[in-house]
Amino acid sequence: MDRIRIVGGQRLSGTIPISGAKNATLPLMIASLLTEETLTLDNVPRLADVVLLQRILGNHGVDIMVSGKRSGMTADHGQTLHISAANIVDTTAPYELVSKMRASFWVIAPLVARMGQARVSMPGGCAIGTRPVDLLIMAIERLGAKIDIDGGYVVAQAPKGLKGAEIAFPKVTVGGTHTAMMAATLADGTTVIENAAREPEIADVADCLNKMGARISGAGTSRIVVEGVAKLNGARHAVLPDRIETGTYAMAVAMAGGDIFLQNARPELLQAALDVLVETGATVAPTNRGIRVARNGAGLAPVDVTTAPFPAFPTDLQAQLMALMTRAHGTSRITETVFENRFMHVQELARLGARIQLEGERATIEGVERLKGAQVMATDLRASVSLVIAALAAEGETIVNRVYHLDRGFERLEEKLARCGAAIERLSG
Ligand code: EPZ
Asked: Which of 56, 102, 131 to mutate to test the pocket of ligand 1 (most atoms within 8 A of CB)?
C-alpha cells in the first residue's frame, strides 16, 4: 500500500493548478444516464473516485471514451470524457460497487426517471457518520415512485413516469438536492425543492442539465423550481474548479509559510474559508486567473469556526483548518455541525504533538510551538490531507499510511506540493 513521506520545514512558493471539482464531476457523470445522447465533460480530474464511477456506469451499459492528449496539453489540464448512455442494459447498482463510493447511490434518480425502475444497494456505513439516505428516498417517493427495501437494496418503480411535486427537505442535503433535481427534470409537471442545498456544485450540475434541455431555475438558492420535459439531449460542459482542493492548498501555505498562486481557483466558491484564512494572518489576493495566498513572518492567530452548509465554512475543510490551528498562538475552537463523527484526524494529529480536546461536536485546539514528525494513519479523504498539512510544518520525517484515501479526491497531490518546494514523495507498495 502506498505511503507518503514528508520532511517538514520547507516554505512553499510557486503555482498550483486547481483541478476540476470531484463533487461536481460525480453528479455530472451520473446525469449522463438521463439522456440517450452523448454528454461531454471537460476539466475532469484524474481521481480514483472518477475511475470507480466509470466502472459503475459501465455496469449499467454506459460507454465512456476518454479523449487523448492534444498538442500543448500537460497533466495540468483536466481530461475530457465522452459519456453515452444510449443503451441502459441494467438498472441495478450492486452492493460491491455502491459500498465503495456513497455518491453512486445517486444513480437511482436518473434510472427511475428515465427507465421507470431502479434497484440500488444502500451505501452502508461511513467513517465520518451514519449518513443515511432517507431524504433521497423521500424525494423520489414524493415524485411518485413506489419504494421497497429488499435485501439491502432500494427498489424504486415508476412505470408510468414520475410526477412533479413539492419537496421540502427538513435539513439541507447535497445528495438529496442532486437526486431531486435530476429526477424532476423528466417528471411530468413542476417540482419545487424547498430548503435545497446551495453548494456551487449544485448550480454547476443545474447549468449542465439546462444545456441538456432541462428547465431548472433557482439553483444555488434554497428554492429550486424544475419544469419537467419529455427528454434530454446531449451537451458539452466544463467542470467548475475544486473549491476544497483550493482551500486545502491555501491552508498548506498558511501552515508552511511562503507564497503560492492557485491557478483557476475562484474566490466566490469558498469565500467563508478565505475569510477565516485572513483571520489567521495569511494574505489572500484574488486575480482573474486564480488566487494568491501567502504567509510570511507573522505567526498564526487562533480562530473560532463552525461548519455548516454553503455559504458557511465547509465541513470538507474542517480537518485542514484543525491541522493549521495546531500551531496557532492561542486557543481555537472548531464546531462540526454537518457530520456527527468527523474528528478521526484528532488522534493522528496528536501523534505529531498537537493538543486537541474533544467535547461532542466541538474541538478545542491549544496551539503548540512545534510539531514533530511521526508515523500516522489516514482514515478518510479530508482527514488524510490534514495530516499532510501538519507534516509540512512538523520537524523531521512523517510517514502517512493508507494514502488511497487521498487518491480518491486529490489529483497528483505530492507532485503539486513538491513543485512548490515541499519535501514530499510517494513510497509505493
Ligand atoms: C456531499 O455529501 C459531499 N459528497 C461531501 O463531501 C460533503 O461533505 C457533504 O455533501 C456536505 O457538504 C459529494 O458531493 C460526493 P449531505 P452528501 O447529504 O451529499 C444527513 C468529501 O469529502 N443526511 O449534504 O452525502 C447526513 O448524514 C465528501 O468530498 C440525512 O440525514 O452530504 C449529514 O449529516 C465527504 N439523510 C447531512 O445530512 C439523508 O438522506 C448532510 O449530508 C441525506 C443526508
From this structure: 131
pLDDT digit string, tens, across residues 279-324: 999 999 999 999 999 999 779 999 999 999 999 999 999 999 999 9
Task: Give residue 129 CA to ligand 1 midpoint distance, Å.
Answer: 9
Strand 235-238 to 258-263 pairing: unpaired
Q: Give the C-alpha separation, 333 to 118, whole Å.
A: 44
Cα→Cα distances 46→5, 97, 179, 363, 381, Å: 22, 19, 24, 33, 15
Question: Mean pLDDT across the stretch 72-85?
Answer: 89
**CB within 8 Å of 168: residues ≥ 6 apart:** 194, 195
Supply 195's cell numbers.
Answer: 430548503
- pLDDT tens across 216-246, in order? 999 999 999 999 999 999 999 999 999 999 9
Whether 40 is in the pocket of ligand 1, judged by its Cβ within 6 Å, is no
Pick the atom of ligand 1 nearest to 339's CA.
Answer: 34
Cell numbers linked to 116? 421507470
Mean pLDDT of the chain: 96
